[in-house]
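ugh ok so i messed up the first submission bc i forgot one of the chains. this is the corrected input, ALL of the components this time, i swear. 812 residues overall. if the numbers dont match what u have on ur side tell me asap before i send this to the collaborators (the ones from the other lab, u know who)
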Amino acid sequence: MSAVPIPTRTPSESLRPPLVDGEQTLSSITETVCSIVERPQTPRAWYIAFAISSSLTLMLFGLIGYLIATGIGVWGNNSPVFWGWPIVNFVFWVGIGHAGTLISAILFLFRQQWRTSINRFAEAMTIFAVTCAGIFPAIHVGRVWLVYWLAPYPNQMAMWPNFRSPLLWDVFAVSTYATVSLLFWYLGMIPDLATLRDRATSRVRQFAYGLFALGWTGSARQWHVLEKAYLLLAALATPLVLSVHTIVSFDFAVSHVPGWHTTIFPPYFVAGAVFSGFAMVVTLLVPARHLFGLKDLITPRHLDVMCRIILATSCMVGYAYATEFFTAWYSGNRFEQFAFLNRMQGPYAWAYWTMVTCNVLIPQLYWFKRFRTSPWLMVGVAICVNIGM
Amino acid sequence: MSTTVEPTPVTTDEPEPASRLFGAIAIFESAEKLLSAATALKQSGLTKLEAHTPYPVHGIDEALRIAPTRLPWVVLAGALIGAGGAFAMQHWMNGIDYPFLISGKPLMSIPSSIPVTFEVAILLAAFAAFFGVLLFNGLPRLAHPLFRTQVFRRVTSDQFALVAESDDPRFDELRFGVITTEHGATSVESIEQDVSSVAMPTLLKAAGVSLVALALIPPVLIAQARATTSEKPRIHPIQDMDFQAKFKAQTTSPFFDDGRAMRLQISGTVARGDMPIDPAISTGYTSDAPPGPESSQWLDSIPISPTIELMARGRERFNIFCAACHGRGGDGDGIVTVRALELQQGTWVKPISLHDRSVRDQPDGRLFNTITNGVRKMPGYASQIKPEDRWAIVLYLRALQSSRNAQPADVPADVLETLRETN
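and heres the new structure output, hopefully the right one now
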């Protein structure tokens, strides 16, 4: 075994806790990470967890089949004015995805080195979240088999899509976002796939990892190009992630519906996306780190930093809620005012107050150090945020 | 590329006739040792020298004198093509090719085209970055001589390697070994390259050929379907609203007590559009049944007062309902007629010119009846055009006929004078 010490501290960081705990070397980290996928025997617990999630997935497919066969009235979408359930889910899932891109791209540009422990994890979460998000607008069009009409392709009707509609902007924003997230994830993973390829002992693993590693040799020239490309992709993904939720917010803000037609929506949506996404990362990461023995690589410091980000974005979201009320009052528009008062006191008051409690009040617990250091308290708060969003 | 043919060196391994020396690899335990060895070897004049490391090592670019990559320019080009293409696409599609009028918004508006322009720019730039990496790095390259050495397998995990290629004119394996060992290499080996040409397994070949053949079937079927015509109705995988569950007229229905699908008119009510008016206005004749062609029971004049508004209305209705076959001028050269004659449609009867004497001499009531009930191949338009509008069309038709067949006597004397002067 090689005994190369990991450069855990850079001079500027000497006062901060190290990025990884324990006496780590290159080989020990590789060993820790690779051993998860290289276990000769898949643990029984994994099969049980997989069985549960795949039966739920099967139920999802069954219900989608029922929904498509019956119509979107199943969702309660019985009016052409609102999207109701599907757009709530769409915005929720796209927002979840944004934390992954934020961690991988924005923190990379800001040279926040702690991101390297969790970025691949968060990027994978992004890709699954965007996939989930895509289900809802695709089905909500009603005749999902005609969803390709959204694409500007030459057709026998000699018609083109309406490029002045925010719903079409959504199509471009979300599909670009999914594609760029996938490219970013895969590009960063190529050297790791090569590591797995060279560690593989069976022919099947050698072939599979070898195919996806594309013949990476880790040469200085390859690293030179890859690092440049990674930096550029990060620089492209950063405005992209901001634009995606901005465009999603246009679905509401460009309409003239009271309570929606407001310019605060784009920043408000982006802050909310980062907020809910980080809460989801914490929700998934704490159990994963526990189950897969990654506590030395994903340290309390990482979790602490994520809690601080959740706290900061919670305050932004709370500020946005307050601003909406101020705007409604200051506008002098009776319909605008009614929309907000009704939100607070009307038939959906229970949902509104759950949202405020879970998104603004409960995250304030992160001011206390105990909630940022105890993983299970942390997850409790994060799950509240997931519910609130 | 070296033009001199290298003599195949004899290696310590059992000699394989189908391989040649690719180069030599030296393994280091740390990045610092690798850097100093790389600097020394570069100074010795080696040009085909490459470092392989588990993570990007700072300073290696300078040690190996790697020129900055041109990738950023490729990415910029991708972004510009994306932005320009998306902007032009939106304006051409919504503004030029299919002008899309939505609530009076401008056809070519810059603000509303920003989101798609931006997204497509990012998309193409990201594609440029990703495929640029593959292109500049020569990937995918699944077979590489390095992969045949055991020592290389640790290089992607925790060790560092320097590789010198044998087609460098200054390559000397012995000297390479000495310099790298001086700088702390733990092992130095030569790398063999397999140059034997191994035939592809027959099974793989057969599978490849049959896959290509199968993949060709759908495009061939599509091309055939596009090039030929079919008598059968098109396949309807998704029926949308083309075939609906419904009761047709004169059929039974279990829904109503009387078992009929059709409903009877409720006594004492009048159906929409059935309000009784003067029968002469709604039929164009005064008898109980349509009279013969030469009968005197046709109305001789239009029974509603001919105003300029009625004339305008008649022109509009004529151009909507009649002009498609009869032509705007009534010559029987409407676009449907032209197209049908072009297609050599044997069943098409060209409508007679409305300026023909046989039409001009018909009484107004008979023209009205023709619009209402049709004649020869022409269907009746009673269900599409209201009676007043049918009279408006007759009025306009008379104006059309007069425009070609008027005599000086038909024009009032004072107007005639003005006409003479202006012509």
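quick check: Chain B touches chain A through 67 residues (CB under 8 Å). that seems consistent at least. Residues 1-7 of chain B have pLDDT under 50 and may be disordered.
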